[in-house]
Amino acid sequence: MSVIKMTDINLSGKRVLIREDLNVPVADGVVTSDARIRAALPTIKAALAANAAVMLVSHLGRPTEGQPEEKFSLRPVADHLSTLLGQNVALIDNWIDGVDVEPGAVVLLENVRFLTGEKACDEALARKMAALCDVFVMDAFGTAHRAQASTYGVAEFAPIACAGPLLARELDALGKAMTNPARPFVAIVGGSKVSTKLTVLDALAGIVDSLIVGGGIANTFIAAAGHNVGKSLHEPDMLDIAINLAAAGEGRADIPLPVDVVVAGEFSADAAPITKSVDAVTDDDLILDIGPETAERFAEILASAGTIIWNGPVGVFEFDAFGDGTKILAEAIADSDAFSVAGGGDTLAAIDKYGVADRISYISTGGGAFLEFVEGKELPAVAMLERRATPETAR
Ligand code: ADP
Ligand code: MG
Question: What is the number of the ligand closest to the CA of 317?
Answer without folding.
Answer: 1
